[in-house]
Hints:
This protein is mainly alpha-helical. The protein has helices at about 5-25, 30-75. It is rod-shaped and about 85 Å long.
Amino acid sequence: xxxxxxxxxxxxxxxxxxxxxxxxxxxxxxxxxxxxxxxxxxxxxxxxxxxxxxxxxxxxxxxxxxxxxxxxxxxxxxxxxx
Length: 82
């Protein structure tokens, strides 16, 4: 799991709590700051998910290349030295 996912989730939760505190106290500034922090966390979390997906796809592509090379080796007849 990418560290951006973890940090993003923490910001999302902290922002949600700050926004809620602003709603309860009627403090629009705190509410706005919390909403901004929450949005930043969601964005960072999405970035982390994208990084994880790219990493996963690149690992799968690497596995496919290795499998194809192994398949070619097993089906290619070998020549003997004469």
